[in-house]
Specification:
Number of strands of chain B: 10
Order of helices and strands of chain B: EEEHEEHEHHHEHEEE
Helix content of chain A: 55-70%
Largest interface: A-B, 38 and 45 residues
Strand content of chain B: 25-35%
Structural class of chain A: alpha+beta
Largest sheet of chain A: 9 strands, mixed
Structural class of chain B: alpha/beta
Order of helices and strands of chain A: HHEHHEEHEEEEHEHEHHHHHH
Helix content of chain B: 25-40%
Shape of chain A: elongated
Strand order of the largest sheet of chain A: 5-6-4-7-3-2-8-1-9
Oligomer: heterodimer
Number of strands of chain A: 9
Radius of gyration of chain B: 17 Å
Chain lengths: 410, 225
């Protein structure tokens, strides 16, 4: 009988080498399997990217606003949502006394009145209308903390902070309603309406409105003291919903929007799309799993002779079993990688189209989250690949070599 | 070296049980060149497969070096096939996704004894006159070339026993003679060679000829090799 000698030298073909060669030389046959896994992974990830991107955007936007509740005129709820989420410019006002009334509600810690004004579509700075937002430097807690942290100063007279998508560098001039402003800083991207907003001091907004009759082609209908919204930060321990109820019941004509409303609104807008995508992903998986299993069985049958020969040459059952399963897992991995790349690049390249066609804010999720979720979906695909190959792998590995070779020749 | 005792292999077909091999006894010594001759369906390939550990007999046993190979575990039997046997199959049995050199190197994955496989495979291909085909795939080779690759592959792990099932099937007379000369040359290096063929004219290469009919060994002829 053979006695093993301990002479270990290099072999030039390995288990992985066999898998690689088999996949490479049967590329056409493997396309169906790869395509199935690419589609499964791509549709699941696209749904995730849409929901994740929208939620990330809302989160970033709400963090920037820094408010727990937004108080606006009753009739302006929809346009407020449009301003905040997608940046559709609007102008609405209610009386400044509302600010004091809101401040008096139990549970309210701080308030920050703001003025929302839509700029003219033909403003010298821009070819489209922008949302101008006047903030009170003394009370503001949305832009001021950022200003002090980033620029170590408060907003000065006729200075503006621009959203991430507004063109122009710091120091450049912008003209709205005939009034000149200077860009003092630029906010980070949020994917929400804030990206196309211009923040100025509320006093400057009033001056701009007063001057508009002489300087602008259209007079801005905004009186000193009028405000559009009151941003509310609630006290620690207070319940946002209770404070909201108090505001609505105690201040006639006012609507109070809690920050979660925007996330819920976005989820609502997306639900049909994401449900459709998840349905597609589920359907594809439902169809693809038996299809992939069937392909794996067919391939194993087709390769009986090859597996029989490997058994005859000394491959044991475990080797053949592993070979079939690993090949299937590698194919699933290739499909998953294609799905991940297609989904991620598609969403990133066409995020503008996605945003406008679905009417949602969108900010790509953080890279770590993308990587983790891509890895999880890829792992799912690879697991499906492995599970689908178990039965054919077991069958082909348990055939007698002689039978496998003979049946493979038929 | 190899003792086969009362080997029987039954198959089920539409009409019932078929005795592919029927109570075959065989005693093969180290260095023998044995030819198993018979018509198609006489059970010669099945007998070779039973001796080589490729198909389990319905009854009887095969003893190699005092061990019944059919009492071994799958891993032990696989290891035996990798290290002690070299197979040449009827239709060459080359893996289509591997080139000539890789096909020759393949059995080394399963061997417990590792050597410089690439060098040895290249030398074997050179010695069999197909060194220039190392990068070719099976579909690019002629029938004779495929047989030579299969022979080179059977030798890569330096086994003691070469089992060849119809190694000259579908080959022209000249190539048939070349292949048989190669096998005789291998036998002269001390290896045991067993060849299955339907061509009785190849008997002149063998030291012993076993004739099979309907699963039974009907005649054993011994001659000087």
């Amino acid at each position: 009988m053979h006695s093993p000698r301990a002479v270990i030298m290099s072999t030039s073909i390995s288990f992985i080498g066999l898998v690689r060669r088999s996949i490479r030389r049967r590329l056409f046959r493997n396309i169906a399997t790869v395509a199935c896994f690419a589609f499964i992974t791509g549709s699941i990830l696209t749904a995730y990217f849409l929901v994740g991107g929208a939620q990330n955007s809302v989160r970033a936007g709400m963090e920037r606003l820094g408010a727990d509740i937004l108080v606006v005129p009753e009739q302006a709820v929809q346009s407020t949502e449009a301003v905040i989420l997608t940046g559709v410019p609007t102008t609405f006002v209610f009386d400044t006394s509302v600010a004091a009334e809101v401040a008096a509600i139990p549970g309210v810690e701080r308030i920050a009145p703001q003025v929302f004004v839509a700029s003219l579509a033909n403003a010298p700075c821009c070819s489209y209308s922008l949302q101008l937002i006047g903030v009170d430097p003394l009370q503001d807690f949305t832009i001021r903390p950022w200003l002090q942290a980033s620029l170590q100063k408060d907003l000065q007279q006729d200075e503006v902070i621009v959203g991430n998508l507004i063109l122009g560098d710091v120091g450049d001039k912008l003209e709205f309603f005939g009034h000149n402003f200077t860009i003092a800083g630029r906010l980070e991207a949020t994917g929400m309406g804030i990206d196309t907003a211009v923040f100025m001091r509320i006093q400057d907004a009033y001056v701009m409105a007063a001057e508009s009759a002489q300087k602008a082609v259209v007079k801005l209908d905004l009186q000193a003291g009028q405000i559009s919204a009151v941003l509310v930060k609630i006290s620690s321990g207070a319940d946002a919903n209770e404070v909201q109820q108090s505001i609505v019941s105690q201040i006639p004509g006012a609507a109070a929007i809690v920050s979660g409303f925007f996330a819920a609104s976005v989820s609502g807008q997306l639900s049909a799309t994401t449900q459709a995508l998840y349905f597609v992903a589920f359907s594809v998986t439902l169809v693809a799993v038996p299809l992939v299993a069937l392909i794996a069985i067919m391939v194993a049958n087709e390769r009986r002779k090859e597996m029989g020969i490997m058994r005859a040459l000394g491959g044991n059952r475990s080797f053949i079993f592993r070979l079939v399963v690993v090949e299937s897992m590698v194919l699933a991995g290739i499909g998953a990688s294609i799905g991940v790349i297609a989904s991620a690049s598609g969403i990133l390249l066409f995020q503008g189209v996605v945003k406008s066609s679905l009417g949602i804010p969108f900010l790509p999720p953080p890279i770590q989250t993308v990587v983790v979720n891509s890895a999880m979906v890829s792992l799912l695909a690879i697991t499906i690949g492995a599970v689908c190959s178990l039965y054919p792998a077991f069958r082909v590995s348990h055939m007698e070599p002689y039978q496998a070779i003979r049946k493979g020749e038929i | 070296m190899i003792k086969a005792k009362q080997i029987t292999k039954l198959y089920q077909d539409g009409t019932g049980e078929v005795h592919a091999v029927d109570s075959a006894d065989l005693d093969i010594n180290e260095g023998d060149f044995v030819l198993i001759v018979g018509r198609s369906g006489s059970g010669k390939s099945t007998l070779l497969s039973v001796l080589g550990g490729l198909t389990r007999p319905s009854s009887g046993n095969v003893v190699l070096d005092e061990r019944d190979i059919w009492s071994l575990s799958d891993s032990e039997l696989s290891s035996l096939r990798a290290n002690d046997f070299g197979f040449v199959f009827q239709f060459s049995g080359l893996i289509q996704t591997l080139n000539t050199l890789e096909n020759v190197m393949l059995p080394a994955i399963f061997s417990t004894e590792k050597r410089d496989v690439r060098k040895r495979a290249t030398e074997l291909l050179e010695s069999l006159g197909i060194g220039n085909k190392a990068g070719s795939y099976p579909s690019q080779l002629s029938g004779g070339e495929m047989k030579r690759v299969a022979i080179a592959r059977s030798l890569i792990n330096d086994p003691r026993i070469i089992l060849a099932d119809e190694p000259t099937g579908d080959l022209d007379v000249d190539t048939e003679r070349e292949i048989m000369e190669l096998l005789r040359g291998i036998n002269r290096t001390g290896k045991t060679v067993m060849v299955v063929t339907h061509n009785p004219e190849l008997a002149l290469y063998a030291g012993r000829v076993l004739r099979m009919e309907k699963g039974k060994i009907t005649e054993i002829t011994t001659r000087g090799a």
